[in-house]
Amino acid sequence: MKFLKSWLLLIGLSLSISSFAQFPADVGDDKYQPRLGQEGKDVIWMPTSNELIAQMLKTAKVSPNDLVYDLGAGDGRIAIAAAKDFGARTVGIEFNPDMAAFAQRNANRAGVGDRVRIINGDIFKEDFSKATVVTMYLLPDLNLRLRPIILAMKPGTRVVSHAFTMGDWEADKEIDAGLLRTNYSMQTAGAWRDGV
Predict the structure, then answer these.
(1) How is the chain split into domains, by residue range?
(2) CA 27, CA 30: separation in Å to the nearest integer?
(3) Which sign does the torsion angle of CA 178, 183, 187, 188 carry?
């Protein structure tokens, strides 16, 4: 696990250096200052670029009819974009209580606090079965641990995984957004059940 965290940090830092303008140095507010690469429960915090968030949400065909859950919500940027740019209702699940509160403040500041709810919780304990879209930027072992939960979701639920696959599940669509290989997987009528 430490090796994977270190590897992700190294990749993330190199990407942040190459796209420094996308991640302002003044991230945070007067109550909380997250640090790029800070350790969490199972992952480190590496924010997703706005360009990549837009690609993820477009690929999932997010609409105002959707309920989007962002697993490992970090500073809330994916949940906020889904609400602000696509009109969806969103819920972010974030383990770090300070980061979760910060993400909710970010949603309020962005004017979408009425459509974004950030839960301080564990993605393996919170119920996200009502989601129509699930987004995540987690490590491969976490994606694999999520498979049984995702398989129990209703057919048609779209799952978008940034950077890491869902193991041997074949993605419906993969996109190279210029910063990092991004895998997009959409569950269609139980198609994943065949290859479990």
Answers:
(1) 2-195
(2) 10
(3) positive
pLDDT tens sequence across 153-187: 988 889 988 877 777 777 777 776 554 444 444 44
**Helices of type H across the chain:** 2-18, 50-59, 77-86, 97-109, 140-151
Question: Half-sphere exposure of 182 toward its Cβ, with a 13 Å CA cutoff?
Answer: 25
Domain 2-195, what fold?
Answer: Rossmann fold (3.40.50)
185 contacts 166 by C-beta, under 8 angstroms: yes
Asked whether 187 and 159 are in contact (CB, 8 A), the reply is yes
The 10s digit of each residue's pLDDT in 76-122 is 999 999 999 999 999 999 999 999 999 999 999 999 999 999 999 99
Q: Rounded to whole angstroms, what are the CA distances from 194 to 105, 161, 190?
A: 42, 20, 8
- The b/e string for 76-92 (b: 16+ C-beta within 10 A; e otherwise) is bbbbbbbbbebebbbbb
